[in-house]
Amino acid sequence: MTATATAPHPTLDEASLGRSAALLEKVLFEVKRVVVGQDRFLERVLIALLAQGHLLVEGVPGLAKTLTVKTLARALDCRFGRVQFTPDLMPADLVGTRIYHPHSGEFSTALGPVFTNLLLADEINRAPAKVQSALLEVMQERQVTIAGHTHTVPAPFVVMATQNPIETEGTYALPEAQVDRFMMKVLIDYPSEGEEFVVIERALAAPPEVQAVLSPDQLATMQAQVQQVYVDPGLIHHVVRLVTATRDASLLAQARLTGLLSFGASPRASIALVQAARALALLRGRGYVVADDLNDLALDVLRHRVVLSYDALAQGLTADAVLMRLLQAVPSRAAPADADAA
Q1: Do the Cβ atoms of 139 and 54 come closer than 8 Å?
Q2: Same domain? 240 vs 304
Q3: Which DSSP state fits 214?
Q4: What is the residue range of 48's domain?
């Protein structure tokens, strides 16, 4: 099946697209005045903000994860919160609790650190199941319930949770239901020699003052624009085939991946991939999604949603290695815009 060479049907005018792309470029420039490298990570955080999703980040300590999100919050004029997850953390430490005042005989509600715009959940896998459950509600529902009363978190709201891939002692495996709530899982690597040299230079000087470039209201407008980004039905069909292939035995056999995946991705992965691709298209100044947007994001959206079999682990395979072979076996179909350009 090939895509028909018809013009795309974007619902966003060029002027509004240009303004949004220019503002987002200013945000990136402002953050990069402080943060060196981490371009891919920063782009993924912006995509999560635009698509109203959440990020799971895996990387060793000291790679500027906290600095990146904190700087981005300043550039967006948003509130930033950080919670260090530990084995003794309680749900009340995260969402808040009721406090009794003996002098007046009344209760008041003290809201927890989740009531912010950008929440950094540091080393999330060190917290017990009760805390994971409390975070799951606020991630999915964007609200918390305290003593029977519902409190809505401010918008925008994005959770960026980190995991340390080195230490596993004293950690709790994240429930599959919670892992699936993260739109993307991003892997962060060490900087290059040149980037690390600049990091040290900047660390020896006074940090620059970060200016607010985008207001929360402007960000909300861009989030609405993401919902208007056009996605060709042919590309949606490709996403469905790709995600279905992770759990279809015949398609896995076609890709010579039989027995390597125990569980595949759910339909939530299909939705996440399309939504993230729409946000990436807006970030790149387009009112429509192209195949490259999906290909760029496929690993980030799928790597935490597939479960490798014992055979795959025995062969030393990673989720990325299996998914790369799957992507090659399920070739993308060009969107109409790609066909026109050709």
Answers
A1: yes
A2: yes
A3: S
A4: 34-209
pLDDT digits (tens, 9 = 90+) for 4-23: 444 455 567 787 888 888 88
Asked whether the beta carbons of 85 and 131 are under 8 A apart, the reply is yes
Residues 323, 287: one domain?
yes
My answer on whether 179 and 253 are in the same domain is no
| Whole-angstrom distance, CA of residue 330 vs CA of residue 326 | 6
Alpha carbon 136 to its chain's center: 15
Cα angle, residue 127 at apex, residues 124 and 128 outer, rounded to 5°: 140
For the entire predicted model, the pTM comes to: 0.85
What residues pair up with 184 in beta bridges, in sequence order? 55
Phi, psi of 60 (to 5 degrees): -70, 160
24 occurs within a structural domain: no
Provide the number of structural domains found in the chain. Answer: 2
- Cα distances from 22 to residues 14, 15, 222, in angstroms, run 12, 11, 12
Domain containing 63 — which CATH number?
A: 3.40.50.300
Nearest CA to 323 out of 248, 253, 260 is that of 260
